[in-house]
Amino acid sequence: MSRARSHLRAALFLVAVSPRGVRIRVPGRRELSARPAPQEPGMEYQDAVRTLNTLQTNASYLEQAKRQRGDPPTQLEVMKLYLARSGLQVEDLDQLNIIHITGTKGKGSTCAFTERILRGYGLKTGFFSSPHLVQVRERIRINGQPISPQLFTKHFWRLYHRLEETKDSSSCGSMPGYFRFLTLMAFHVFLQEKVDLAVMEVGIGGAYDCTNIIRKPVVCGVSSLGIDHTSLLGDTMEKIAWQKGGIFKSGVPAFTVLQPDGPLAVLRERAEQCPLYLCPPLEALEEGGPPLTLGLQGEHQRSNAALALQLARCWLQQKDHQGPGELKAARPSLQHQLLLAPTFQPTSRMRHGLRDTEWPGRTQILRRGPLTWYLDGAHTCGSVQACVRWFLQALRPQRPGSGPEVRVLLFNSTGDRDPSALLKLLQPCQFDYAVFCPNLTEVSSMDNADQQNFSVTLDQVLLRCLEHQQHWSRLDEEQASPDLWSTPSLEPGGPTSLLLAPRPPHTHCTSSLVFSCISHALQWISQGRDPVFQTSSSPQNLLAHPVADSGASILREAAAIHVLVTGSLHLVGGVLKLLEPSLSQ
Fold first, then answer.
1. Cα–Cα separations (whole angstroms), residue 476 to 463, 485, 505
2. How far is CA 557 from the centre of its chain?
3. DSSP letters along 184-229, please?
């Protein structure tokens, strides 16, 4: 155990700043959640979310899934039993005209593009996705909008009580976990709201994901594959491709984008009973017409848009809907031993759908006075590489200002991901400051059920942030002079609301800091200069170290501050909650 880790374990008391600037001591081993509070008038939604949180969080769902790997197919059988206990049969789901989408990178963006295109045809859409950024009801959308707190509350308690009434002592007779419950709830909402179609995003993997009880989707899609959730899905692209290809159904058309040869061969094998098409690049659909404008930024979104166009067109064709787009080439052709999906002229509705797609937290830019926030929930090596390309491209149009510009990284990662690999990919951005914090909006989340997490303690997440900081320091020092410096350890008597390892100056030196929550990190980064994010306590209350103090002076005087927030969608969600208060309403 490192000296820094032992010091943190020995004396982990966080100094929080109250709205009046009074310092209070918060024990480090505090659980990051609260059990359901008594229901109060006007608090029904928060009470429902608190009860939902007791079922389990996504992190504990992963642990449970790992324990059940010995017989994964039983997970789908258990899900079918939960569905029956809720009052539905798998046959009922056929009414939803489902588009089922999986992938490692871009599956959420592909879902968003697809939903927005089809909504433009006057269809009533349902959209189930994960995770949520600010409020859990974002996971279940009708016509692109999160269901209302009232609708969420009504459907939650109806389903919760039905499952409570059918509990017994068997493993399948208990309450379903967090993600399973929300999947069941989405099915109920979409059926009762009588949607014309439902876009369903796979949670993790595909073959044994609880969304895969769907028998007869209209069409399936696989976005770009990469390495993620290796402890659950496997440690090679081929193993992961096998899991993703598990959503294919006999006779149901499926589409994928260009993949490496190995994973593509696996998808081809998994599609033995269904037609699998390879999407041509977006350029092929743009030929003979004006360029397509995408509502989501980044070159990597073009692949997601190409897949979405094929999924939307196929759905329209399968349901005999008018206006699927005029074909450019009638004869199917082969590429990589797969049928090449048809090239067609996107309709005006398709064009408007791509242009008007919104998907917060993915290649999103917020400009606030001297601050520009770049938000992207990239959390795999492939997606972080795409994020870096987008960030550097977005910086290029910046004209030289009248003063210095500062680049800041705000980062966190969770689960079994390799933070060192992700951070190494971020090095070319040449940040002046690297800031690390847990995915907690405030030190205590008791007043906000959407931000609660039962699976970790405060010292655990802070220790992980400290490890991120040490990884960054080593990478930064290796880049400059690997043998001259060693990573400084945390001083046992130093401040603990702000943990940082000051490092010697060199070319592109990055000072790194760790804060106890997102709010504290944003206070230090923004220095009161963001016109929307304003706090009653002064940022100086957080400063207890000379490097942080000198950095604050630089940030206050900078002509422009560029902040990249990445590594975790949960982190991005916490930042958005503070920067965009309307998302919490």
1. 20, 10, 11
2. 33
3. HHHHHHHHHTT-SEEEEE-SSSSTTSGGGG-S--SEEEE-B-----
Alpha-carbon distance of 239 to 315, in angstroms, equals 29
Q: Which two tokens stand for residue 294?
A: 């995408």
Residues whose CB is less than 8 angstroms from the CB of residue 71 and which lie 6 or more positions away in sequence, other chains included: none
Q: What is residue 446's predicted lDDT score, i.e. its pLDDT?
A: 60
* Closest listed residue to residue 340, CA positions, set 288, 275, 289: 275
Task: Please give the residue that has the higher pLDDT: either 68 or 217.
Answer: 217
Cβ–Cβ under 8 Å, residues 528 and 534: yes
CA distance readout (Å), 422 to 210, 292, 481:
29, 31, 21
Under a CB-based contact definition with an 8 Å cutoff, are residues 87 and 207 in contact?
Answer: no
Please write the tens of the pLDDT for every residue from 527-566. 999 999 988 665 455 556 666 888 999 999 999 999 999 9
Phi-psi region of 286 (alpha: psi -120 to 50; beta: other; left: phi over 0): alpha
State how beta strands 405-411 and 364-368 pair: unpaired
pLDDT of residue 393: 94
Q: Which of 22, 21, 16 is nearest to 536 (CA)?
A: 21
Average the pLDDT over 158-173 and give the result: 85
Average pLDDT for 437-454: 75
491 close to 497: Cβ distance less than 8 angstroms: no
* Predicted pLDDT of residue 38: 37
